[in-house]
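Figure 2 data, in text form.
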Amino acid sequence: MAQAAQTISEMIAWITRRKVVNLEDVAAEFHMTTTDVIQRIEQLELEGRLTGITDDRGKYIHITE
């Protein structure tokens, strides 16, 4: 479980550093399917760990205050 938690933290950091990411790039970077990335991002948003929107071109845009 510690490895999974580290991967989630790394994913959050990776997304927040880049601000706008292609979901396919996130999937490739973290060895996941694009569908899994979308589900993970949705879960992280529900937990309040990420804030952003997914556009219709397959990009996630991280929003900060």
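Caption note: The chain has one domain: 2-62.
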